[in-house]
Predict the 3D structure of the following.
Amino acid sequence: MKDMTDFGYPSKLKGDDIPYFARIAAVADTFDAMTSKRTYRDALDLKVVIEEIEKCRRAQFDPQIADVFLDILRNHYDEIEEIQKKYA
């Protein structure tokens, strides 16, 4: 499996050359897409979301950012749910 340093579409940026906030946004956007109800499917279960982020860690996501995000999902998901309900 390739690691994140081999990617950087579309500008062919690699690793730390990819802006920090873009690396955070990549994980956050994926989380939002998976946990939002779509016309073609319901929101995915948290377990599925965690598995997908773990699977894509290094290949699609910065591993350090993915680890922090996974820690938040595992230990503070109740706070995220409150925010989601507030803005649903």
